[in-house]
Write a sequence for this structure.
C-alpha cells in the first residue's frame, strides 16, 4: 500500500481503494468513481476489505464520525491502514484547489 500523503498528484490514487462517504459537493459519485479509475485506483461502494482512503463529502462537514464511519473503518484508521480525508483535501491533493 502506498502512502497517499507522499504521492504526487498523478500517483495519488494509483493502486488505492477509495471509498466516498456522504454527499459530494464537487461532482457526482459516478464522476468521482470514474476519476479514481482513470488515476489507477479502485472505487469502493461500501466499507470492508482493504480500503486505503475514505473521502468525506463536502456536504457532510463538519464531520460527525459516529454517524458516517462504521466500526470497521474506525478500526482500520486506528491501525494505520486507512486514511480519512475531506473532499476539500482530496481536491487539494489532486491540484484542483
Amino acid at each position: 500500500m502506498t502512502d497517499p500523503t507522499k504521492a504526487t498528484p498523478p500517483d495519488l490514487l494509483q493502486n488505492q481503494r477509495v471509498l466516498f462517504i456522504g454527499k459530494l459537493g464537487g461532482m457526482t459519485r459516478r464522476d468521482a468513481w470514474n476519476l479514481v479509475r482513470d488515476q489507477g485506483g479502485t472505487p469502493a461502494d461500501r466499507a470492508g476489505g482493504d480500503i486505503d482512503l475514505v473521502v468525506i463529502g463536502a456536504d457532510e462537514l463538519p464531520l460527525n464520525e459516529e454517524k458516517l464511519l462504521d466500526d470497521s473503518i474506525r478500526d482500520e484508521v486506528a491501525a494505520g491502514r486507512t486514511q480519512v480525508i475531506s473532499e476539500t483535501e482530496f481536491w487539494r491533493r489532486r491540484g484542483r484547489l
